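Supplementary notes (optional reading)

For those who missed the lab, this is the record we used. Protein: Homoserine dehydrogenase. Length: 416 residues.
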Amino acid sequence: MSNKQSNSRIGIFGFGCVGQGLYDVLQTIEKAGIEVAGICVKDKEKPRSLPASAFTYNPQDLLQDESITIFAELISDADEAYSIVKQALKAGKTIVSANKKMLASHLPELIELQQNYNGTLLYEAAVGGSIPIIRTLESYYSSEPLQQVSGILNGSSNFILSKMESEGLSYSLALQQAQELGFAEADPTLDVGGFDSVNKLCLITAHAFGLTIKPEQVLRFGIDTIKKEDLEFAKSMNARIRLVASAEVTEDNELSLRVLPTLVTEQQELYYVTNETNGVTIAPVFAGEQFIKGLGAGSHPTGSAVWADVSAALSGYRYSYPKAAIKTIALNQDNKINIYLRCVAGSTLPEVNWENLVKVQETREAAYFTAIISVHKLQKIQSYLAGKQIFIAEITAEQATNFALKFSEKEEVVYS
């Protein structure tokens, strides 16, 4: 261990799941050689595993301490996290963050602050939990063009889908179980609504393709309207439904971004990613497809990712955003995708120049459609579809054809 690391002091903001995990890692790794200078928390009354003397309640007690070598920002409040990270970078300090919402919302500014003030910001733990996806993209694929990066980036949603699928639970019961086990928050909207995956996809895009994208530019549908019938539909196609975040280069060499429930088959690695596990597929142009899988949540898995960033930063590592200098690709959401829709029987779908909109089945309760639509047009009617509780999933052209054939006696072309 270098002298620099053995003399290092760390200031930790937050002592929740990830903060506790990082603290445990630092205490367990005997040669970490890092002294915890202080831990800043907000709630003075909350019971904690350490004595009160280990904590401070004013962020400035840490930020103004010149003896601190590195900071770890591990709080849930995105606005407070932004304030802390911004101040640290403007002081030329090194800071590690796990706050994906804050990072995705302010990434261009944070990159500029690092350049202007010679600060360092690392955030591996913000994307895939224990999966080293950012470091892999940043270092190993720094010069090779990528065709696609896609994956399951939210453990809470994946746990819910897995339980509905394997145990036949309703969405509400599976969500309740996820909350009881600590995989989902009391307000699960960020997870099940796809917002968390969007934020992570924005960070991946910066390193994989050199584009800094605002979260609102990404097409987003969650799993909060899913029902058992949708899983049965997937099963009839020998597939499973997973919430997949995807950054894909189109035939026109433009980038398409989306977070959608997606039918994945046995031929795809994501088919085998269950419970709170995350998995990411990287498709380079030359090297061939790669797949990384690991725990996407939890105190120690995420704490270990923070520790990996801390250790790397103390050794001088920093992101260089190599793809940003090339800028050979632009965002364009005009590419078309095949989708499956399930809505309440008798519901009206908005007329947006659907292609091949086919009602393949209708029961007393629901109507089932397949269609082709551009990502951009789907974004335009996103709010309407969500308000009508219409479930959307991405499918392949082959799956659309097979589904229609299964119910050919009831097939009805609605628009063409």
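If you only remember one thing from this example: DSSP finds 17 helices and 17 strands in the chain.
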